[in-house]
């Protein structure tokens, strides 16, 4: 399940629930909609079929006031306690802001009842410069019994902001969903709108999009490898990767004018300011190989990573994990990746090894689901992507410049479209409903939404002191999850 | 005279030691790094801040920093660093030194528990776990040195090594040195036991107890911790390589040489720590007892060798 979204169609008197499935046995993508009576919306829950559907349903219940029938855990998900019970922000007739209100109810953390248990609350304001989230640990001595993450502190109402935007505005706004996935989100938004309008992309633009997506993946992976090293106090690796990351950010700036690659995508295309240089990526590959060698040959550092924060295959599949998290737990790539009709990833390039199934399927299942596995997956992805970027740069040098003007005469018909992108963090999906050149409703799913519940699961039996390391190995976005 | 000199020396040397370690880290990581005197600037900044009293703070919380500083300075005064047998010389017994160190530890652990915060309690529990393993090893390691000297006075131990430099390479002393280095690293919470630069509350040992301190009190705690590091390095230097230490106060000229030698020795050891730390990662919290029991075994072997081989 890639996405479950809803739309309030006030004039028709219904609330329409849309389900988007990817990688089904019969089709890469399936979509169906269910209309609910707007005056008394009741949705039979499918939470027992799939864990992630249950969480999507809770989100819809919060945003649209839909009553869930037969949901095992119908608690609030998005709305914090100070939101009134009967306020549902995504209904068209909802007041712009309910104002600042006192907490109506206490947030119920699972209480582990015993004399020896003590609770540690961390956040939402943390010591580092990171996003807000509250973690409540119940621990005996140093062992974690359970951890509950409370999120949605950075809820900005971004889905509501999309309503009524023109397409170029929407693509720019999508860059702001989660800063480290600027390209991923704006590309998904562009593809969703293109899907809705039936716009075709020329080959040069497709390559440019692949290059941008790859560059975003590379700087994030380099950063993650350094951050994992830093969390085991191997700070020299962190310093070295910081240098490499800075080179990549500067290359980003040279190619697109923005260090986070923003502003380079547009409807129907994508453009670079300068010609990419294949040698740049090969140099980064050589430098990173050297750094990774130092890191992985340090016995003390590797000892910290192995066997820490294990997420086994069964759990990863049940939770519906995506991206490197799922891959590190041994879930086959074909099951979690964005379907190729939508991904900008070109599977024909020789450097792209990870999706060729065959010889890799055995290797993937050998990942143990621990922090070390999540590091290994990143290292492999980094190497493959750097090679692919070098290849792409060479091919782009021989391609004609793209100057396909986008047809600005948008149809006034109501259409919908889905954009699904394999971003660096995993599969992310946008579904838009458009009319008259405007977005009526956008539903956004960041990979973090699928992966957050896995953090708690992987902490079973872990030590309190290992939590920051485990959390870093997941490196999930708060902003992308909270929207 | 030397008592005062030693106190002043360590007040100044402690922060410089930390400054040097940080500088070396910075240089190895390709940064320019702050000056060696940066810790003093940091203390001045903290000193100018107001004192904030957390809710529920008691006498323990208020006075623990001063107790920590006091015990550290007492060790600085009593132990033989630049000269042996000064006024306090007779009290520079190894049990006194180790006892003083742990009074400071206990004070900080109690202060961590005082407020009832989860981090304070967690830090105190970890600190005491480590301390309870460090304390016996430290005692046994120094005790191994005291057997050939027939005294537990640090003064006498120093003089006996000084009069017989060949002992430096005796297996007993080398084993004791190994054990000593491990416990000093554990006691000062350096890598691989604890990461002093981390901001992650959940992984901290020493720093977790101090989270509620701010302003002048934090300055006192940090200054005292810096002094303890240089004290312990000074103890390693003088118990195992007592070259340069003067026997009773002579003229100011020899005293000056002795001070310089001590500073050089402490800073060289600090530099060794800094270089070693760049190649180290932090070990799992659950592995710390294994490391420390290993060092206890070294100390114990050392005492055995001293007793049976050296006793002849």
Notes on the structure:
- The complex is a heterodimer of chains A (483) and B (312).
- Chain A is of the alpha+beta class.
- Chain A has helices at 51-64, 158-162, 167-174, 182-197, 203-231, 235-256, 278-296, 299-305, 313-319, 323-328, 333-336, 358-365, 371-398, 447-458, 467-474, 478-482; strands at residues 3-9, 14-22, 29-37, 42-44, 67-69, 117-122, 134-140, 143-150, 265-266, 269-270, 415-423, 426-435, 438-445.
- Chain A folds into two domains: 3-108, Beta Polymerase, domain 2, CATH 3.30.460; 165-451, Cytochrome-c3 Hydrogenase, chain B, CATH 1.10.645.10.
- Chain A has a three-stranded antiparallel beta sheet with strand order 1-2-3, with helices on one face. Chain A has a three-stranded antiparallel beta sheet with strand order 6-7-8.
- Chain B has one domain.
- Helix content of chain B is 69%, strand content 1%.
- Chain B has a two-stranded parallel sheet with strand order 1-2.
- The mean pLDDT of chain B is 86.
- At the A-B interface, β6, α6, α8 and α15 of A face α5 of B.
